[in-house]
Amino acid sequence: MEEEDTGADPYLPYDGGGDTIPLREIPRRGSHYAMSNGGGAPSSSTHLLDFLEEPIPGVGTYDDFHTIDWVREKCKDRERHRKINSKKKESAWEFTKSLYDAWSGWLVVTLTGLASGALAGLIDIAADWMNDLKEGVCLSAMWFNHEQCCWTSNETTFAERDKCPQWKSWAELILGQAEVSRRGMYIYWALSFAFLAVCLVKVFAPYACGSGIPEIKTILSGFIIRGYLGKWTLMIKTVTLVLAVASGLSLGKEGPLVHVACCCGNIFSYLFPKYSKNEAKKREVLSAASAAGVSVAFGAPIGGVLFSLEEVSYYFPLKTLWRSFFAALVAAFVLRSINPFGNSRLVLFYVEYHTPWYLFELIPFILLGVFGGLWGAFFIRANIAWCRRRKSTRFGKYPVLEVILVAAITAVVAFPNPYTRQNTSELIKELFTDCGPLESSQLCQYRSQMNGSKAFTDNPNRPAGPGVYAAMWQLCLALIFKIIMTIFTFGLKVPSGLFIPSMAIGAIAGRIVGIAVEQLAYYHHDWFLFKEWCEVGADCITPGLYAMVGAAACLGGVTRMTVSLVVIVFELTGGLEYIVPLMAAVMTSKWVGDAFGREGIYEAHIRLNGYPFLDAKEEFTHTTLAREVMRPRRCDPPLAVLTQDDLSVEDLQGVINETSYNGFPVIVSKESQRLVGFALRRDITIAIENARRKQEGIMLNSRVYFTQHAPTLPADSPRPLKLRSILDMSPFTVTDHTPMEIVVDIFRKLGLRQCLVTHNGILLGIITKKNILEHLEELKRHTESLVTSQRTRPARPSLLGRDA
């Protein structure tokens, strides 16, 4: 049995403590709270739950950093639902209350979708404005960004449509056209935004840092982290997310938007007792909020629902699927109404390609998938190694200094290269865009365009001009820069998403490969591949498509998402026709990444922080038994138990005060050790307090009985305390010979916190969720040590060779 965790520093990892004996409710058929035979007992119409819900100082349902009991929460919800259905025919008011209860789920997801869409639009608009603020300011209207400032100008040209007299750079306003002042103001604003973001997080809401998805996955699995989805976290994360993105750090806002949406869902759930008083029901709202977060992050409502189902949700019933779909719909509708990008789209980099893909292109697409898998495996190992070093050294004690240092390096190195200086979303948009006659990007400076050819489509294989070759070198440098800085940025004490940086790395690599294949088709057009598939008079290769495929491959290599990722990308770009290349690249990246390790970046950070999370994707392949994992072991103290009729109130209170367990097995006697049931600490405490307040004669020497009938006592004996009604007569049990593969499966599918181990009805021990996680970690370390020893062991000389 395990002790409670009193709390944790938000900047320190969870140490694994706190997964204690659960607070578990069981269904009872007509059971009522009977204290003793005599006056003062509650009436038979009073249900046990009415007593258990009475507030007792110091007694809470679940403590911070503990795991909920899904079975108990489901039993509570069924009891509440039965009570409402039994009363709805009594009066019109009760019928109205039943309707309100039935529609409360739809109301809370509607409010969550509305709030998520509004906050996402606000974050997008503010981030674009503050990102342009590093370059200059609009004199006519300071609240306009660079593009909006030049919309109404009549002095812009097509070639220089981003230049207008209303927009002034800081160099022009302060020191003329000096390049040094322009770079200095860029670095100054970047450091200011980063410093302000980390200070707000450190002072007001430490939980607002990071992506939030690892913690969301852990919370949805049943873990309690008080304050992680609170109003202060929501406010600070919204503000600091804008600052962090505008600072130019190699991070994105898409992952943190899931955290923001879950904060909205958690806050609105407190308006409805159906969800505020039931942690399992609340997690259904959080699953729908996750879908809404991805919906507004990528403009992908269907992808958001699949993301919630595939990646973050632990329990996903059919009604949660419908409500997640509705929440994603409402959020996307609100974001579309706000139109933050001014292009009547939900996302910034919506593109449409006008040429099909050809069968031979599957070869480079698969190669991009291999690159994405290799990048994902490398990034996970490098980032986890750096985060582990940050936690174990003095450097991790100075989060503000670390953020300032990384922001300074990022700003200084990124400024000379236009592909690293610009906003990452703008970079992805440029890499995704296909070259046409209206494009002025350096990536589209082909010789045919420079020589004034009639149209782009007249020559299917265009020779690259000097601008394309210069852009290729800049993209190669940008790729190296993004790879290095993303490793050190993800995990800083500022809001930091990983979706956009990973997609940027893949888009850069894909665009480089696409241009290379395009030039290969031009200079070797007589090869059988190009000669067979490329038609004369039409574009043969679309480099922007390669960027899109590379972005999906790299994001899949890092997160190990498959179905939801493909749907998100084709919703993101409108490229439904290119779903086969996306599927091929994403599956290849997953296979390659799984060859180096099956866990994605979020599962790796969950394990790094020590959260009690049983991953349903991980297979248990060992042959251990329940007796090898149960507690206590031979060297441990005996299991704390209660006997059914040998305790006094004083003895019972002594056990409760001397231990911090959340529940106790009840046995027949110390001699027989035969299991009777399981009693919860909270229920025992409430029962004793209520008995003292509502009954006379309950003293310290009163006998405590967990049996159905108390024996006849002498006349001068104090009144006994009957606790049979709070005893769980059917706790989850397994035998000592049960394979751990089955035990782990039971814990995953039922959401258990503990399971008792017996042999022919005799109590032997207990297995908790924490014990299973510790056992899995021990097996993993043992396997790694065996592999290491086999690699370092010198090879024995072959007997066949010696005989020869």
How much is the radius of gyration in Å?
31 Å
Q: Approximately what portion of the residues adopt beta-strand conformation? A: 5-15%
CATH class of the largest domain, please? Mainly Alpha
What strand line-up does the widest sheet have? 3-5-6-9
Overall average residue pLDDT: 81
What general form does the structure show? Answer: elongated
Explain the overall architecture.
With 804 residues, the chain is mainly α. The protein has three domains: 209 residues, Orthogonal Bundle (Clc chloride channel); 224 residues, Clc chloride channel, CATH 1.10.3080; 161 residues, CBS-domain, CATH 3.10.580.20. It is built from 30 helices and twelve strands. The strands form four sheets. A four-stranded mixed sheet has the order 3-5-6-9. Strands 4-7-8 form a three-stranded mixed sheet. A three-stranded mixed sheet has the order 10-11-12. A hairpin with a 2-residue loop joins strand 11 and strand 12. The chain is elongated and about 105 Å long.
Can you give keywords for this protein?
single chain; 804 residues; mainly alpha; CBS-domain; four-stranded mixed sheet; three-stranded mixed sheet
